[in-house]
Amino acid sequence: MPELPEVQEVRRSLEPFVLNVPIMDVTVLRNSYIRTGAGSISALIGRRVQRTLRHGKKLFCIFDDGQVLLIHLGMSGCIACCRPEEPLQPHTHYLMQLATGYQFRMRDPRRFGGLWHYSSWALAEQSEITGKMGVDALDVTAMHFSAWRNKQGRLKTDLLSQRTVAGLGNIYVDESLWLAGLHPLQRVNKLRDRHALALATAIRAVLNKSITMGGTTLRDYRNVAQQKGQFAQSLCVYGRADLPCLRCGSTLISRTIGGRTTVLCPQCQRRI
Ligand SMILES: [Zn+2]
């Protein structure tokens, strides 16, 4: 469930706890949660996170000797930085003891997320981004949609695939398409330049607004300080099926597209 704004908020709230703080110890409570193998992760002991980087929904911690820890929150991944004496929550899979006394804890009840360890950024980038993920959605411009001219496919499915634009999930795709006035089943190769411009502008606007509000909490999502995001109150279509469109007053409808519940305005979002 966490999409780009939520991962960005986790990154923002995580940095004060981990940047330039030596890792004193690591504990793997569930080996399979370290997707690249739990063995190599003890190499992080004694190192410190020098910077973080986010691409789409993936969050990378880059250490002072070049090692990389990739965090993917999946559906229910949650990071907390707390004192070690606080009770361990169920489904906690990984701990890092920080030199400040705080403990980095990652829990994930549904286990669609995970941690990946790489010895260098070059390896991490090659394995995780190159050829797999499109431009980060905060940087998307109309130009990034030019490949659609020769591509089959429908708008929502393509945006969810992460291959053209990285970072959008069900919530922000629906919000962006509504704001841009585009139908989720629109064929991508029929879009004109002005549609591409409207879509890129809408994606950035929706994401930036959500980021300023700490993301969207529908149920589980919390930042590292265990605070909820406030953007749920600003959603225009997601979760609003059968309610009036905030732009034209028509009743919003719900459809299943690509296996995902999709809400749209039949008036504002026509196919071209
Ligand atoms: Zn409408």
Mean pLDDT: 97
Please outline the major beta sheet. 4 strands, antiparallel
Calculate Rg over CA atoms: 20 Å
List low-confidence stretches: none
Counting structural domains, the number is 2
> What is the terminal separation in angstroms?
30 Å
How many distinct beta strands? 12
Strand content: 15-25%
Number of discrete helical segments: 5
- Order of strands across the biggest sheet? 1-6-7-5
What small molecules does this complex bind?
zinc ion
Task: Encode the helix/strand succession as letters.
Answer: HEEEEEEEEHEHEHHEE
CATH topology of the largest domain: Helicase, Ruva Protein, domain 3
Tell me what you see in this structure.
This protein has 272 residues and is of the alpha+beta class. It has two domains: 4-128, N-terminal domain of MutM-like DNA repair proteins, CATH 3.20.190.10; 135-264, Helicase, Ruva Protein, domain 3 (Orthogonal Bundle), CATH 1.10.8. Helices cover 22% and strands 22% of the residues. The chain is built from five helices and twelve strands. It has helices spanning 4-18, 121-128, 155-160, 170-180, 193-212; strands at residues 23-28, 49-55, 58-63, 68-72, 78-82, 92-98, 103-107, 114-118, 135-136, 165-166, 253-257, 260-264. Strands 1-6-7-5 form a four-stranded antiparallel β-sheet, with helices on one face. A four-stranded antiparallel β-sheet has the order 2-3-4-8. Strands 9-10 form a two-stranded parallel ribbon. Strand 3 and strand 4 form a beta hairpin. Helix 1 packs across helix 5 (193-212) and helix 4 packs across helix 5 (193-212). The chain is globular. The protein starts with a helix and ends in an 8-residue tail after the last strand. The model has no long low-confidence stretch (mean pLDDT 97). Zinc ion binds at residues 245, 247-248, 250, 265, 267-268.
